[in-house]
Amino acid sequence: MWRSNVLRLRNCSSTAITSHGVKIRWYSSEKSLPVTEKEFESALAKVFKWKWDESKTPLGFAISGGVDSMALAALYTQAQSNLDSLPKAHGFIVDHRVRPESTEEAEWVAQQLRSKLGMEATVLPLTWPEDFDPNDLKRFETEARTLRYQALGRACRNMKITSLMVAHHGDDQAETVLMRLANNRLRSGLQAMQSVEWIPECEGLYGIHHSGKSQRPNPSLNIPFPIEQGGIQILRPLLGFEKARLIATCEEKGVVWAEDKTNQIQTLTSRNAIRHIYKNHKLPEALSIRSLVDVSLKMQERIKWHRIYAYKKLFDQCLIKLDIQTGSLLVRFPPFSSLLPRPIETQTDKIQAKNTAYCLIERVAELVTPKSKAPLGQLAATVDRIYPEFVNLEDGEAGHWEVIRRGNYCVWHVWWRSWDKPSPFTDHAEEGLDPSLPHPREWLLTRQPLDAGEREIRANKIVYPPSLQPSASRERPTYQLFDGRFWIKIRNLTSDTLVLRIFTKVDFRHFPTFREEKDKVQEVDGGLRPHRFIAAAFDLLKPVDVRFTLPAVFRKDSTTGNETLIGFPTLDVRMNGFGPPEGVCEWSVRYKKIDLGGCEAGDIIVPGSSRKDITAEERRQRLSREGVVRVQTKNIRFVGTGAEERNEMFTGYKRMSTSHTDGRDRRRRDKGVVKSTSSEIEGGEADGLSFLEEESDKQGKKGK
Q1: Of 177, 302, 513, 601, which has the highest C-beta tally within 10 A?
Q2: Which GO terms describe its biological process (predicted)?
Q3: What is the β-pairing status of strands 120-125 and 89-95?
Q4: Residue 309 DSSP class
C-alpha cells in the first residue's frame, strides 16, 4: 500500500561506515540495552502522577513516527498492560504538508499506532502563512516549531487533555547543553530542557496557555473577578535515556519507525551539525552525552533548591497587596537574614543568598508583569536595590540605603517605585528599622507605561468586527489575553467596530473640559454627567498614572469613523453606569494565572473599587459640585459615609487629611461649583481628586 519512496523505514540497529571502512555505532560507543519496564515506569512516575478515574481524559502523545516517539508509544503501551490505573493514550501526528508525501507519511504513522500499539491517533495538518517561503530554512524551523506546538495545543484543548508526552531524550538534552555552551548561555541556561514544563509557543491561546480552568466561585474571597487557572503541560519521561537505548527498544519490540531525511542535512540547523559530530567523531569524555546530561541535572537541582526556598518559604513571608483591577501591587520583602536558612557570613553565603533573592524578586514581579519570560541579567541587577547588603560600600560612605536604591526604575515591563509613604502593613518585624519611618524594603510595582509602539501591537489592541448576523448564529466569543495581564471576552452586539486598547492621555478628549461642564451642568439628565462613574472610579485609583495602563473599550462608528468611549472592563464601569452597556456589548474579565504560594487569594488580593465605593465617590463629587462638601486639594481626605474604610483601601495610596476651606472656596461654592486647584505632583502621583479639572487646567494654560 505504501510507496517505497515515501518513507525510509528502519527496524535494525543504526550504524554508519566511514570512508576508512570503520563501523561506528550511531550515538553511542557502548553496547546499548533496551529500556526495561521498571526503568520506564520509574521515569514515568517522576513526571506524571496518576490515579484511577474512569472519567479521566486521555494522555496526549506527540508522535512524529521517528524512533524516539515510537519507542515512547511502545513503552507506554507496555506500561498500560501492567498498570490499569494509567489513562488511555491518544497520539497526535503533525502533517507539515511541505513535501508531497507528507500527508501519506502521517497517515502511515497513525495506522501503525492504531494497528500495532492499540493507540488512538489523530493527524493534525498544518496551515502555513501565505507569505511562507519553504526555502528560507531558518524561518522554516522557527515557524514549524510554533505551528506544531499550537496545533498540538489546540488538539489537546479540544479533547480536554492537560498533559502531552513528548519523546525528547538524553541525546537531545546533551545537544541542547552543547548549543548553549557554544552560545555562551551559562549558569541557568545549562538547565536545558525540564522534564515537566508548560507547553511553549502558545502564549495568548485560551485553554492552552495558563488558562482554561476557571476559579471556583467563592464569595468569601471578596476579589473583583476570578483568576485564571489551567494550561497544558509538556512531559518528558525519556530525558534520562540515550537514543541508542530507544533504538534497541524498538528493535526488541519489533516496532518499525521512519527517519526524517532532513535530519541528515548537516548545515540545516545547529542541532543537525552537533548530531553529525557525535555520529562521526570521538569527543572528550567531558562532552559525552552522559556528562552533558549530568551537567543539566546538577544545574537543575541547584536552581531548584533556590526556587523552592524562595517560592515556598520567602514568598509566604512577603507582605503583599495586589490590585488585579489595575495589575499593580505593594510589597514588603522579607529581611536580608531570611534569604538563607543559615547565617549569611561568607562570600559563598552571599552568592547563594543573592540567587535566592533573584528567585524571590522574579516570583513577586510575575504577579503584575505583562511578559512571560524574565530578562535574567536585567532583573538580577535589581537585587541590590532591594537588598543593599549585597553591595560593599567604601568606608565612610553614608546613607547606605539611599546610595543603593537611587530612585525608581523599570525592568521586565514593570515600574518599580520605592514606597516612601507610611506603610499600610502593621508588622515591622525587621530589626534595626524605625517603625515611624517608611519601610526601606517596601516597593510599589505597576505596569511600565506603554510607548506608542507597544500600544499598537496585536496583544494590546484587539478589534471586534461588527455583528452582522442574528444573535442565534453569532460566533461564540472566547477569552483573549490582553497586555499579558487580563483575559477579556467581549461580544460585539452592534453594527460598528469595537476596539479594546490601553487608555491614553489623548483619550481625555472623550470627556468634557471643566469649563464645558460648568456651562452645561444642567443640560444632561438634570445635571448628572454621563462620565460621572468613570470619573469617580479614576479618582479612587492611586497612583493616578495607573489609569494609563487600563484596558478600555471604544466604539468606532461604521459611517463617520468617529470614536466614542464605552467603558473599562476591569473596573466594570461605563458611561452612565456599571457593567457593559445593554445592546452594545457584553464583557467578562479574568486575571492572568498567578501562583499565590501557600496563601489564599483573599490574603493577597485586595477588593479594589467596588460599585458601592464608586457610587459613594460619585455622590461625594456631586455634592462637592453643589457646594455641600468643602474641598481643599492639598492633603485631601475622603469625607462622608464609608470614608475611613476607603482611606484604608489599597486603592487609596495617598494618605490624606481634612482641612478647612478658605474664603475663595466659599465664593466658588456660591457660584454653584467648587473647582479643585492643581496639586503638587511628585514621582508621577497627584493629590487631587478630580482628574477632569487637572486636565482642563492644563488645556487652559496651553490656550494662554
Answers
A1: 177
A2: tRNA processing
A3: parallel
A4: I
The 10s digit of each residue's pLDDT in 105-144 is 999 999 999 999 999 999 999 999 888 887 777 788 889 9
In terms of C-beta density within 10 A (0-12 exposed, 13-18 middle, 19 or more buried), how is residue 590 classed?
Answer: buried
Nearest CA to 146 out of 192, 199, 109 is that of 199
Q: What is the pLDDT of residue 5?
A: 32
Q: Give the number of other CB atoms < 10 A from CB of residue 550.
A: 21
Coarse DSSP helix, strand, coil percentages of the chain, rounded to the nearest 5 percent: 40, 15, 45
Cell of 30: 557502548
Identify which of 423, 406, 416 has the alpha carbon closest to the alpha carbon of residue 444: 416
**pLDDT given at position 440:** 87
Specify the 3-state DSSP secondary structure of 94: strand
pLDDT of residue 77: 97
Distance CA 147, CA 169 (A): 22
Domain with CATH 3.40.50.620 in the chain: 37-195+236-297
| Residue-level length of the chain | 704
pLDDT confidence band for 12 (50 / 70 / 90): very low
Q: In sequence order, which ranges of 126-189 are alpha helices (DSSP H)?
A: 137-158, 170-182
* Contacts of residue 192, Cβ cutoff 8 Å, sequence gap at least 6: 173, 176, 177, 180, 296
Q: Assess contact for 157 and 212: CB atoms under 8 A.
A: yes
- Cα–Cα distance between 621 and 615 in angstroms, integer? 10
Q: What confidence category does residue 459 fall into, taking pLDDT thresholds of 50, 70 and 90?
A: confident
116: helix, strand or coil: helix
Distance CA 232, CA 237 (A): 16
Helix (H) or strand (E) holding 251: helix 243-253
529-581 pLDDT tens trace: 889 999 999 999 999 999 999 999 999 999 999 999 999 999 999 999 999 99
Rg (CA), the chain: 30
Encoded amino acid at 690, one letter: S
Cell of 545: 498614572
CATH 3.40.50.620 for domain 37-195+236-297, yes or no, is: yes
Could you tell me how many helices (H) and strands (E) the chain has, helices first?
21, 26
What does the pLDDT look like over 307-358, one tens digit per residue? 999 999 999 999 999 999 999 999 999 999 999 999 999 999 999 999 999 9
Distance of alpha carbon 90 from alpha carbon 73, whole angstroms: 10
The least confident of 245-249, 419-423, 609-613 is 419-423
At 27-60, the pLDDT tens digits run 333 568 999 999 999 999 999 987 645 457 899 9
In terms of C-beta density within 10 A (0-12 exposed, 13-18 middle, 19 or more buried), how is residue 673 classed?
Answer: middle
Q: What angle do CA 643, 644, 647 make, to 5 degrees?
A: 85
Q: Which residue type, as a one-letter code, is found at position 433? A: L
Distance, CA of 602 to CA of 468 (rounded, Å): 42
Q: Can you give the pTM of this predicted structure?
A: 0.83
Q: Are strands 414-418 and 442-447 parallel, antiparallel or unpaired?
A: antiparallel
- Secondary structure (H, E, C), 496-555: CEEEEEECCHHHHHHCCCHHHHHHCCCCCHHHCCCCHHHHHHHHHCCCHHHHHHCEEEEE
Amino acid at residue number 185: R
Which three-class secondary structure string do you get for 449-490? CCCHHHHHCHHHEEEECCCCCCHHHCCCCCCEEECCCEEEEE
